[in-house]
Write a structure and sequence with these properties.
With 134 residues, this protein is mainly α. The chain contains four helices and two strands. It is rod-shaped and about 150 Å long.
Length: 134
């Protein structure tokens, strides 16, 4: 099989050369889209308020998300603090219950010089005639 271009006649090569030349590389897709495409400068300017409104909504969405994430972090921090305070409460309550037992109170009172009474308490009864019975 021979090369196709070598078999072309002079007429065919002229037709290929006369075909549309390559576009200028300096024009990019963005400028072509606005200058020659669907959107013209007038329609872009007319749509500018709507685009700004969408940008504003986007900023509100981002700000709201950041605010919600900050609140979640604060809630987690407060929950952790509440848990720690709950542990402190439980340990303090258990320590108070231990220190208020009779033996612990007797040990603390002994350091102050107060002794536990070994005699049982006596019941005092009052008779109607006013005499006291021991």
């Amino acid at each position: 099989m021979k090369n196709r271009l070598r078999n072309l006649t002079e007429e065919e090569t002229e037709q290929i050369k006369e075909q549309e030349p390559l576009k200028d590389a300096s024009e990019n897709l963005f400028t072509q889209f606005f200058s020659k495409g669907i959107i013209t400068a007038e329609t872009a300017t007319g749509a500018l308020p709507f685009i700004l409104f969408l940008a504003f909504l986007g900023m509100l969405y981002i700000a709201n998300r950041n605010y919600a994430e900050k609140n979640i972090r604060d809630i987690e921090k407060i929950n952790k603090e509440v848990k720690e305070l709950s542990y402190d409460y439980k340990t303090t309550k258990a320590e108070l219950a231990y220190r208020s037992t009779l033996t612990q109170v007797a040990i603390k009172a002994d350091t102050l010089g107060i002794k536990e009474s070994l005699t049982p308490p006596e019941k005092i009864t009052v008779e109607e005639d006013g005499r006291h019975d021991h």
